[in-house]
Design a protein that fits this description.
- The structure holds two protein chains of two kinds.
- Chain A is α+β, with helices and mostly antiparallel strands.
- Chain A has 21 helices and 27 strands.
- Chain A folds into three domains: about 25-30 and about 455-600, 2-Layer Sandwich (Aldehyde Oxidoreductase, domain 4), CATH 3.30.365; about 35-135 and about 210-255 and about 265-295, Aldehyde oxidase/xanthine dehydrogenase, a/b hammerhead (Aldehyde Oxidoreductase, domain 3); about 305-455 and about 605-754, Aldehyde Oxidoreductase, domain 4 (2-Layer Sandwich), CATH 3.30.365.
- In chain A, the strands form six sheets. A seven-stranded mixed β-sheet of chain A has the order 3-5-1-12-9-10-11, sandwiched between helices. A six-stranded mixed β-sheet of chain A has the order 7-15-14-13-8-27. Chain A has a four-stranded mixed β-sheet with strand order 16-24-25-26, sandwiched between helices.
- In chain A, helix 10 (about 335-340) links the parallel strand 14 and strand 15 (about 350-360).
- Chain A starts with about 25 loop residues before the first helix and ends with a helix.
- Chain B is built from three helices and five strands.
- The longest helix of chain B has 11 residues, at about 25-35.
- Chain B is of the alpha+beta class.
- A five-stranded mixed β-sheet of chain B has the order 2-1-5-3-4.
- The interface between A and B is large, with 48 and 25 residues.
- Chain B: This is Molybdopterin synthase sulfur carrier subunit.
- Chain B: Pfam families: ThiS.
């Protein structure tokens, strides 16, 4: 990578301003095309048959009656998606999850699919497919699944990471451990120790737009896929591998996205739609219903976490320990491991130990949800931290400031931190007016900290300058939160032109080099780095063209504020040449002017946030009302502050729903009881207060502008901040998320009963 | 020679070792020599491993140099949302 990504400390003209987003008008007028808005002539309707059982062996599937139904053009089962994964266990799990092979592993697991001329016939065809199941015992609870007596989901799984190789299979796929020092010695130095157990229920990302795609496989073996996704290049790789295609022969175009939050990082219906189209010889549109999204896409883990923290009277933490058990659905994951890494990452600890257990259950395959696994770990740890501060009789903010990690601290997951922002977010929270505002009866205030890693990754960007001087920016990271506006600002900044002169688009997979998934808060971090690089390459060409126009050496041409400037006394009489003037002559000076960049954006820089929340609890009903909420987070450099604030507010809003209401509820039969927004209640506007934000800018040394990712960290503190607020308001420590009214009322009544 | 700390589940794949000494000038050489000396790590390296060099996490940059005396941690490659 011939590009210096180090922070340069420059002053900005465009970056840091708040122009209107380029996709805004289309979105508010209904013109924007989301996944289900794409249609093709002759397209068929795809529908999926799903298991009604939580755990069952598939003895036989008879599709003959469905195939004979007039209007049905294709019926597929796992036999139409043969195993081409070549020993790649993770890909095999994806394949098996897209279409069950030997066993249905959860309520909603796909077992067959049809393509028909309309939805009515497709539904009729599903009813004609006969599946012979042998129903097996199931387990949906993470703690129950760890017991030796629990039904086994996969008898080929033996727990990894144990000191002694196990002789019996288990639902626990892996044990991992992080930490340093000696916790026994640390707890021995403690004057106060808090030890608690916590649970969090499974939640869904709750994106409003369901999964949707149109697949069109041609008879020559090439294919197109239009899809709502966070990463069309990754979808292309996965679909091509699962269907035995060359990646270059599958063009994937990403639609606008109506929310993803990690849930659209995984293929579910797309390989099925492609297989149906391949078999039918016609385009197939497959749109998941809301019921299917809940039952058969990828919610977050349910967890069970034990935390123990000790501190001296002076408020210094001497030891911290956590055991984290995370559900993975029916396939191995690393969700508890991430929880174990992030749990104590906010703190400077001499002695710390975390242990994670990955647990298989008969629920949908767990997928990422915005800083995956960190919010649950933070809920447990930050609740215990708050309780410990009370035991010591110390202000909870001061207690955290005293123990906060800083530059040079060895993180609880291993490496030593560079410059980080946890301390400044705590200081900002301490000095925020919110912390001093009076509280009324039955009201409580809570605060909490959160950490997330942030990632970079493979990124490719094209910047093309038209002959009229306007600039087209083609990026490969999906715009999940306003990145087209941010990246246009970055291009304008580098080129020295107006924001309005730049038009950013998300290119399809055949038009641009590979880009990693838009996850890990990497969209603006990575693509801004690639945009800066591409713009600098374009400036090099612009200088060469100006040199030609002036007939001087390119070494005598500088680029200043959107203009080529001839340097040196001998060129003193030459006027500036604007980008527009150079572009107008490009046909005569060597052809189109462009800048290209392909790089791996590394050094994303870890991120921290501190949240403050006020809650009122009705002690008679357990109902809650969020009165006030404040987010303080380090952005490194806010490229477009409005969209940074939007990320902060969005994380807090989702966190409020997760903390207070949202949960997957399974019946004794292992079936999901609340697969819809009526019974799975995400917050609506009337549930939310104005969410105040404060952006801190502690530059990331590994980005030219100092940018850090901002998309995920904001969902890490809310569960804990809200739990601390509810606990303070209700006078009882809440240990189970969501804190729904019945759960709060039960806790209050148990406390009253002593 | 750099001292490399294997963290989380990686230590188990290297025969239970948490720290190993490797003569390597960059991430590519580090991965190659780790796979040679600890075959159990090879499938994990193939799946993707993150390397923290003095606290900064790198995921894919083979050419990234390992400065003498730098603190090197190998971490599992994580998913984001």
């Amino acid at each position: 990578m011939n590009f210096d990504p180090r922070y340069s400390g420059r002053n900005f003209t465009s970056v840091g301003t708040r122009p209107i987003r380029p996709d805004g008008v289309d979105k508010v007028t209904g013109r924007a095309r989301y996944g289900a808005d794409f249609n093709m002539a002759g397209q068929l309707v795809g529908r999926v048959l799903r298991s009604p059982h939580a755990h069952a062996t598939i003895r036989k599937i008879d599709t003959s009656k469905a195939e004979k139904l007039p209007g049905v053009k294709a019926v597929i089962t796992a036999a139409d998606l043969p195993d081409l994964t070549d020993g790649d266990a993770a890909m095999y799990d994806i394949l098996d999850n897209c279409m069950a092979r030997k066993k249905a592993l959860y309520d909603g697991h796909a077992v067959a699919a049809v393509a028909a001329v309309d939805a009515r016939i497709a539904r009729q065809a599903l009813k004609l497919i006969e599946v012979d199941y042998e129903v097996l015992p199931h387990v949906t609870d993470v703690d129950e699944a760890m017991k030796h007596t629990a039904p086994l989901l996969n008898d080929a799984i033996f727990t990894e990471g144990l000191e002694e190789k196990p002789v019996k299979p288990s639902n626990v796929t892996k044990r991992t451990q992080y930490g340093h020092g000696d916790i026994h010695e640390g707890f021995g130095q403690a004057d106060f120790v808090v030890e608690r157990s916590f649970k969090t229920e499974q939640t869904h990302q709750g994106y409003i737009e369901p999964h949707a795609c149109v697949a069109n496989v041609s008879s020559d073996g090439t294919a197109d896929l239009w899809v709502c996704t966070q990463g069309h290049f990754v979808y292309r790789q996965h679909c091509a591998q699962l269907l035995g295609m060359e990646a270059s022969k599958l063009r994937v175009t990403s639609s606008e996205i109506g929310g993803g939050f990690g849930g659209k990082t995984h293929v579910w219906a797309e390989p099925v739609a492609l297989a149906l189209s391949r078999k039918a010889g016609r385009p197939v549109k497959l749109v998941m219903t809301r019921d299917e999204v809940f039952r058969a896409s990828g919610p977050t883990s349910a967890t069970s976490i034990d935390v123990k923290i000790g501190a001296r009277k002076d408020g210094t933490i001497t030891a911290a320990e956590a055991t984290l058990r995370y559900s993975c659905g029916p396939y191995a994951g690393m969700w508890a491991e991430i929880g174990a890494m992030t749990a104590f990452a906010c703190y400077r600890l001499e002695n710390v130990k975390t242990v994670g257990y990955e647990v298989l259950v008969n629920r949908p395959k767990t997928a990422a949800y915005r800083a995956p696994s960190a919010p649950m770990a933070a809920f447990a740890v930050e609740s215990a931290i708050d309780e410990l501060a009370k035991e010591i009789d110390m202000d909870p903010v001061e207690f955290r400031i005293r123990n906060a990690a800083q530059e040079g601290t060895r993180s609880s997951y291993g490496p030593v931190y560079g410059p980080i922002g946890i301390g400044p977010t705590l200081e900002a929270a301490k000095n925020h007016p919110h912390m001093k505002a009076p509280l009324g009866k039955n009201q409580g205030r809570g605060m909490a900290c959160g950490f997330w890693f942030n990632f970079g990754g493979q990124t490719c960007t094209d910047l093309n300058i038209g002959m009229d001087g306007s600039v087209s920016l083609a990026v490969g990271t999906v715009d999940v939160g306003g990145s087209r506006a941010s990246l246009s600002l970055v291009a304008a900044e580098e080129l020295g032109i107006a924001y309005e002169q730049v038009k950013a688009v998300v290119a399809d997979t055949s038009s641009l080099g590979y880009n990693d998934m838009t996850d890990g808060s990497r969209g603006t971090f990575s693509s801004s780095m690639a945009t800066i690089s591409a713009a600098r390459n374009a400036i090099k060409v612009l200088r060469e063209r100006a040199a030609q126009m002036w007939d001087i050496s390119v070494d005598d041409v500088a680029w200043e504020q959107g203009h080529a400037v001839a340097k040196g006394e001998k060129h003193g009489n030459l006027g500036k040449l604007s980008l527009k003037e150079i572009a107008a002559e490009s046909g005569k000076t060597g052809g189109p002017i462009a800048g290209h960049s392909e790089l791996v954006a590394d050094g994303a820089g870890v991120s921290f946030a501190t949240h403050i929340c006020d809650i009122e609890v009705d002690p008679e009903t357990g109902a809650t009302k969020v009165l006030r909420y404040t987010v303080v987070q380090d952005a490194g450099k806010a490229v477009h502050p409005t969209y940074v604030e939007g990320q902060y507010q969005g994380g807090a809003a989702q966190g409020i729903g997760w903390a207070l209401n949202e949960e997957y509820i399974y019946g004794k039969d292992g079936r999901l009881q609340n697969a819809g927004f009526l019974d799975y209640r995400i917050p609506v506007c009337s549930d939310l207060p104005m969410i105040d934000t404060q952006i801190l800018e502690i530059p990331n040394p590994n980005h030219p502008y100092g940018v850090r990712g901002v998309g995920e960290t904001s969902i890490v503190p809310p569960l804990a901040a809200i739990a601390n607020a509810v606990s303070n308001a209700a006078g009882v420590r809440m240990t189970h998320i969501p804190m729904s009214p019945p759960r709060i009322l039960a806790a209050i009544e148990a406390e009253r009963a002593g | 020679m750099v001292e490399v700390t294997l963290w989380g589940s990686l230590g188990a794949a290297a025969g239970g070792k948490n720290k190993v000494d490797i003569e390597a000038k960059d991430i590519r050489e580090l991965f190659r020599k780790l796979a040679e000396q600890y075959p159990g790590l090879e499938p994990l390296i193939d799946r993707g491993i993150a390397v923290a060099i003095d606290g900064t996490i790198y995921r894919d940059t083979w050419s990234k140099e390992l400065p003498e005396g730098a603190e090197i941690f190998l971490l599992p490659r994580l998913a984001g949302g």
